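quick q for whoever's on today - can somebody do inverse folding on this one?? i tried earlier but teh output was garbage lol. tokens:
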């Protein structure tokens, strides 16, 4: 139900229900649960034998579960997927001795952070907080702010950059007036309002070339990362380090790393997490050129970097396998929701990345089980065909 009504299909650009004409919009989880209580056919399809009068789960159950478990215990879930593969004998003895490591960007679910939009959002949040606390402000600039933001976007689209900068300055002025009005009328704000005023002050004061800037009012953990992509120069989120086995591409470690460190400085932590997850010692690691200078941080592991020369034929083949981590990252983003993180905070970044790795391993287990069932069905069909042929020959002989 969630797949058909709540999730937008990548190729259809809409939900399957919208494509079939059953629905005219993307449903929320709350809408889906409300219809579930009303519809007995859905309940029977989900396995209930009797009609249900209450919601099967609370919409906030998953949020509370993630907060209760935390990112550290989420790693146990990733470790269990590998243990399941070991029990099913899908992983060999030397599977984890060679590892491919790479980093990517997990984007946060925020709008593209322009100065004008940040000024507008900060002002809206301040006005809302002031109304909730009964603080009087001379003017909210709701109508003028909306009009200025619209003009700024149109001027920028028409390449009239001087006029666009004028609208941006106007929005900054509106934010400053609201901030000063609240500080004047409420000299001792509560903790939440004081934090909001502090964040708004950062947005008001930050310049183009400043470091550690604010890119979202509600998500201060968002960072601006440039990976050198031609189609997407800047990405807003956090860096994620991924370690996968060189032979069969099992995800061994995945973790969100903040402060945008150099790739080579993340290698030791990633390998330590991978060894803790799989319970084996890693002997060789294959990385790209962005990890130059990382050998001293892992003295007990052989580090092979792309483009390295004077290697044996066997090691050249393994180094060529380093590229196999790229489609692993691509599938984690497209199939397991790592392309856009909707979870809040630094902890939400780590949880989303680890769950994406768990989903990737679970899909490998599922495909192996599906292949096993398919082989059994083919064998049973072949056996039935042989029995029919034998009975037919016996009848003709008789």
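ok took a stab at it. sequence:
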């Amino acid at each position: 139900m969630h797949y058909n009504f709540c999730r937008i299909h990548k190729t259809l650009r809409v939900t399957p229900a919208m494509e079939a004409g059953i629905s005219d919009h993307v449903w929320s989880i709350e809408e889906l649960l409300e219809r579930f209580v009303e519809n007995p056919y859905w309940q029977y399809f989900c396995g209930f034998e009797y009609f249900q009068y209450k919601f099967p789960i609370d919409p906030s159950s998953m949020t509370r579960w993630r907060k209760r478990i935390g990112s550290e215990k989420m790693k146990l879930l990733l470790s269990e997927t590998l243990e399941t593969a070991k029990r099913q004998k899908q992983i060999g003895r030397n599977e984890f001795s060679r590892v491919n490591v790479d980093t990517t960007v997990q984007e946060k679910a925020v709008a593209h952070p322009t100065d004008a939009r940040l000024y507008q959002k900060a002002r809206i949040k301040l006005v809302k907080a002031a109304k909730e606390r009964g603080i009087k402000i001379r003017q909210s600039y709701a109508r003028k702010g909306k009009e200025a933001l619209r003009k700024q976007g149109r001027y920028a689209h028409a390449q009239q950059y001087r006029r666009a900068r004028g609208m941006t300055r106007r929005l900054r002025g509106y934010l400053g007036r609201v901030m000063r009005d609240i500080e004047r009328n409420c000299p001792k704000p509560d903790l939440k309002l004081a934090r909001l005023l502090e964040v708004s002050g950062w947005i008001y004061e930050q310049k183009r070339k400043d470091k550690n800037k604010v890119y979202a009012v509600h998500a201060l953990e968002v960072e601006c990362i440039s990976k050198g992509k031609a189609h997407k120069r800047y990405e807003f989120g956090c860096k994620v380090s991924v370690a996968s086995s060189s032979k069969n591409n099992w995800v061994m470690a995945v973790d969100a790393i903040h402060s945008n460190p150099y790739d080579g400085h993340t290698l030791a932590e990633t390998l330590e997490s991978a060894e803790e997850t799989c319970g084996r010692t890693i002997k060789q690691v294959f990385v790209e050129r962005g990890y130059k200078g990382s050998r001293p941080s892992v003295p007990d592991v052989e580090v092979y970097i792309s483009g390295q020369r004077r290697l044996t034929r066997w090691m050249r083949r393994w180094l060529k396998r380093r590229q196999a981590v790229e489609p692993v990252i691509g599938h984690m983003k497209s199939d397991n929701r790592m392309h856009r993180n909707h979870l809040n905070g630094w902890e939400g970044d780590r949880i989303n990345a680890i769950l994406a790795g768990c989903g990737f391993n679970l899909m490998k287990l599922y495909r192996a089980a599906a292949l096993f069932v398919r082989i059994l069905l083919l064998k049973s069909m072949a056996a039935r065909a042989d029995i029919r042929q034998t009975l037919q020959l016996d009848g003709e002989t008789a």
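fwiw Residues 115-217 form one domain. also The chain is about 50% helix and 10% strand. so keep that in mind when u check it
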